[in-house]
Request: fold
Amino acid sequence: MPAITSPGRRHLSRAEFRNAESWRPKTASPGVGDATLNGRERAVASYLTDHIVPTLIGREAHRIEDTWHICIRRLIGSAGPVTMSAIAAVDMAAVGHQGQDRGPAALSIARWRSRDGCMAYCHANGETIDDTTPWRASTRRKATRPFPAIGRTRPARPMASPRHKPYEPADADLPSENLWSTRSIYARCPDLFAAGRAAAGRRRPSAARRPSSPDADRGRPVSARTLEPHRLFWLKTRCQRRTRPASA
Amino acid sequence: MPAENQAGFRLIRQHTTTPARGRRGLQLDLGLQAAHRRAVDRLHPRHGGDAGGITHLRRIASLADLYHVRTGCHGATDLSPVTMAAALHFDLSVPNFGVQELMHHTARPDAVFPHAYRFRAA
Reply:
């Protein structure tokens, strides 16, 4: 059954709810999945309780893909973040249950193993160029930050946070609104990435940005081209689904 | 940019040689449309919300691999260490893994959801 817990979230006044789906259909070894939906967990918990759990009762837990198909095909035109979060939690719980029941080596996903480790990237954050680029020092101190990215400057907003504040987009109970100046951000982008390249050396920072106006959309390709000399790993563009998929 | 605006990704690709990444919200249908049109180089799915878990993401990755598109899973702190563990298992298993996003959890979520994965400097 779903369980909602709030272990907190750094630098936030907002309580975070996590939704762990435990599933133990036959054996004593549970599977745990995560149905977190960024503050909308009660909706997911309701969907799990009312629609998913009755579907699982009596089913063989190790038939993971079969269970996934059952959950997906019973959506009946209601595929969306809530339902997909619930199904994802069930799928994670099924995989975890199989791993605990039969041992990690028996997991199909373990048998498909393609590599021994994987590269991860973190976010650099700041209100000014000087505030954003010193992450290199913190990277050296903390061995757990291997691959910072550069992004999200807010040139029109006064600095209100201490330096080197970890990147956290959910910075308030409600979504924050910021002033945006496309001209200002594009004017400083080359300098920001030049400083980032100088600090990163051979590492490859990426660009993550949040334009909020049509001007930003129109101007982005020009900005992307100006950043090419800095050899970015990728260009990360904010992209949001605004309509339901036609197949749902 | 709306995820449905696949022309937007093409516009970006036409104007830069920097690899483009489709942000999360690209579900299976739109992600493959973008891949088919060579509009993105990385997909950025999330195990919950966008995709239905490991099973779903493996299917997406297999189809994306046909178009030489790699994965870059969401890994922010809006999801618990349980999802991060699932994402890392997925990353280790798919041949077309690209990169994994990482926003470190604080001690409290790590204590509530104990895990065995760890990160070190490259």
In short: The helical segments of chain B are 6-15, 28-36, 53-65, 81-93, 107-112. The radius of gyration of chain B is 15 Å. Residues 53-65 of chain B form the longest helix (13 residues). Chain B has one domain: 6-112.
